[in-house]
Give the backbone structure.
Amino acid sequence: MKTEQAHARRPAHRFNLMTFVQLAFAAAAVVLIVVVADMAWGDIPRTTNGKPDLSGYYDTATITPMQRGGDGAEFLSEEQAEQNAERTAFGLAAGSANQDPDREAPPVGGDGSGGAAGNVGGYDSFWVDPGESNFEIDGKYPTSIIIDPPNGRFPSYTEAARERFRSRVRLGGDYGRRNNGTAWWYPGPGPYDNPEVRPYPDRCLSGFGSTAGPPMLSTLYNNHKRIVQTPGAVMILTEMVHDARIVRIDGEHAPDDVRRWFGDSIGWWEDDTLVVETTNFTDRPNFSQGTRDMRVVERFSRLDEDTVLYNFTVEDPNVWETSFTGQYTWQQTDEPVYEYACHEGNYSMFGILGGARRLEREAMEKAAASSGD
């Protein structure tokens, strides 16, 4: 009886042993999968749903120009990149040299220097932050942000665009023409008639140089960005004028009659790359060369835990004969995005328009004196 009971219990014992072995192999397989996944994903930060985590602060400043120049070389040598960085540092230091608060005012009509402020002198270079070096990708230093066309330059303008540019010249320039101390537009109309004809940056409505874009480009200062990422949306905050773009993930574009300064942006994921398509621009997009028919496709890809590759393609049949593509790197930083105080008390617009009225009055008096009235 005992023998029969012993034999009867053996199959159950073997089943328990086999189950243990199977569970052990299954557990090992799970561990292997986790290890492999960690090896595949561990090089960049990811969100809980496995997407690359783009959230954080970035310094997007670079001294690499938009277009290629010089001898047409596609890349700089390491020595050339170091020389560029040294020249930039020297120039910024020289610009900050004359900070004597008791120095004399610049001469009437300006001091002959370049830059903003109508050649009457501006801030020292303490406030300027264009970047310290050329950006680097895979150990190479590109000579331009534009990578297509292959020559690293903007594609040819359409004939309609060239005619628009010629018309602006025939009309005596556009609102971007430098104030040379005379009412060259008199008797008008002119670029200082009212606030509405001034560009968005003058009115503190958006940053200059397409810093908020799209495409988002490096400018003279305030080149920090902040990205906040959720499963349904991505927010990109630009330091200058605190412009914020909201990208709707897997959304649809707004109706054609809804137009925005930064366009209407929707996004989706292609493997580990966030793709953003922007349309529905106003007649004066933040990227000033474009028109309301411009379309911009941006791609955000993490190269490592500290670097995002920002790639963009722009097409506008009203301006260029073909599309063009550019890219540069964004470096993650611990420095936050600070408040941007535009116009230092908001008196600049009064000065701009008030100065224009004075110049017009002087032009009118001069014209009257010439005619003998």
About this structure: Residues 2-41 form the longest helix (40 residues). Residues 57-93+120-165+203-341 form one domain.
